[in-house]
Amino acid sequence: MKINKIILSFISAVAILLSTSVVSLAKVVGDKIVLGAAISLTGKYSSNGVHTQNGYNMAVDRINSMGGVKVGGKTYKFEIIYYDDESNPKRAAQLAERLISQDGVEFMLGPYSSGLTKAIAPVTEKYGVPMVEANGASRSLFTKGYKYLFAVLAPANLYLDVAIRTAVELNGGKGVRIAQAFEQDAFSQDVRLGILDAAKETGSEIIIDDKLPKELNDMAATLVKVKQMKPDVLVVSGHTKGALTAIRQIAEMKVDVPMLAMTHCDAAKLSKQHGKNSQYALCASQWHKTLTYKDNFFKDGMTYAADFQKEFGYDPPYQSAESSAALLVFKDAFERANSFDQKKVRDALAATNMQTFYGNIKFAPGGQNVDKPMVLFQVMCDGAGKCENKVVAPLKWASAKLIHPIPKWSNR
Amino acid sequence: MVFQYPMITIQACLDGILLGVLFALIAYGMALQWGVMNIINIAQGDLVILGGYIAYFMYLFGIHPAWGVIVSPFIMYFVGIGIYKLVINKVVDRDLFISILATFGISILFMQLMNFAFGADVVLANSGYGTTFLFDSNVVLPNSKIFSAFISILFAICLVIYMKKSKLGRAIRATAQNARAAKILGVDTEKVYAATFGINAALCGVAGALISITFTIHPYMGLPYTIRSFMIVIVAGLGNLPGVAMSGMGLGVFEEFADYILGTEFRIGSVFLLLVLILVYRRFKLSRKREYLK
Lengths: 412, 294
Fold this sequence. Notes:
The structure holds two protein chains of two kinds.
Chain A: H1 2-20, E1 28-29, E2 32-39, H2 46-65, E3 69-71, E4 74-84, H3 89-102, E5 107-109, H4 114-127, E6 131-133, E7 149-151, H5 161-170, E8 177-183, H6 186-202, E9 205-212, H7 220-229, E10 233-237, H8 239-253, E11 259-262, H9 270-274, E12 282-285, E13 294-295, E14 299-300, H10 301-312, H11 318-337, H12 342-350, E15 353-356, E16 359-362, E17 375-381, E18 387-393
Helix pairs in contact in A: 2-11, 3-4, 5-6, 11-12
Chain B: H1 6-37, H2 44-60, H3 68-91, H4 96-118, E1 131-134, E2 139-142, H5 143-165, H6 167-177, H7 179-184, H8 189-214, H9 223-236, H10 241-262, H11 267-282, H12 285-288
Antiparallel strand pairs in B: 1-2
């Protein structure tokens, strides 16, 4: 018993030591620019959290090895302090406080997901800490008048906008009948608002409008309705579980719908987990490696994908690409501001107008990136059952022709 | 909607019944160990998910996931015994509150461990079972759902026979009726408790394997299964297998209709609401009066 107590107190002492021994760092130490980030390394967002962190690390290594950041005639290198936010918004907000007031971080990178970004943004705003984030697309982030928040990605309401417009175009400009099912979280509901806007503008009608629960693993009810009411487009957004559940049950129930548009297909590894059943699904994506944007650090999408593959052993999802882009934006802003004054860096960020391998970046007053359209890709399979994602819209970047309408199950 | 398209009603009933049978299997495990050990196992759903991961990994290694219904309970039985030896045997004679806290702790631990070990990705195992069409293909039943209902019934029947005929089954029933008397008459209650918890975990393993075939699994998706089985047991009572089966199917159908009428967003919410209503109605009658297993 006594020994147990001694061991226990020893462990707690070590734990306390470890948690407080991080020496307070100022933003710029010697030749280092220290950025802070709370990332979901554990908890339900951990896989995308790791994609985010890998993206950040890849860009830090690349920028540092290619000469670093030049400010005031001196060269600096990036360094990032990470904390694990456990996929928990409250924890993320605490960690942001800690990074800023305890660790003295003066520039922040965003966490993964809209929900966590929402939790952190008020903190960075309060301290006037510029934050470039790459994984919070919710529209509500950009309507609060935040001055220090910049997002390199297109806002959530644009995710599936292209799909509806494409469907209307293929319908000869006439409105289409839309069935939609969205999870009840900030992100998916914003995607939904985007669809409502697009439907209104194109004169389309929404005939099924379901909300999906957080513990979603069965959407048979929605699909039965779809089967009965035969809409022209089915739109689903419920993160990876929504995408996986939808494809599984559409295939099992043989639901025929001319167009199926979703989010999070690449994160769900649809083509790998479902193979041919996922064929013809349209997926919204922030980025695809075949896009032909260019920059000096990563060259282009294909090179980025190859380098990323070499370093981390898997094909980069868009979450990694956008995270890497966030660092490029910071570097550019520091050099243009030619200072580490937070206000000046903030103003430089606001004036950003550049191209990266990930896309063009230019911020609206709300902080969202307005210069980069979403892309849609379609899952296409060859005879042997090997499936690939091919960009089909917008036409400028398309590497394959959209297959529409989706062939009926009885003909497949 | 339900009246406009009558086929939806049939579809909802069939879906609900197939789903309910699966719930009933999980609930029967819970009723078993609740009845014998007077422990409400909050980690029930997490055991289910862990069982699902076993089938999923078999699938990844190229084995058909349906074999998971044999392999998974086998492994889960030992996992259950392990949990019993580590934690449950220390709380088995304490009051209900302590055991709820203990199993709640196990639940959190399991969630985090599964997240750590298997990642936070949503995964599933494809059975490739195809679909059955009824009524001029207006009603569709995925064969995987039929398969899981069938397997659930099979396991339930086997378990009932086992409980009636075998020596251990008799010992379990004796312990449930009166642990002290059973002990005096030479039943090793410690062993019975361990076996009961093991059997419960094995049932969860079967259910988990079936869920990985029909739905999706994710480290944090356990709780809804715990709640459902808790509710089924509350409604049916502890020693009542037909009751568990009936209330399981009832819950399944209720969920499907809630889904159509109120919308999918209220599906799990409606289960919680029903639970509260039933609890108020029964005024915790069950938790006060310990019933025995028939």
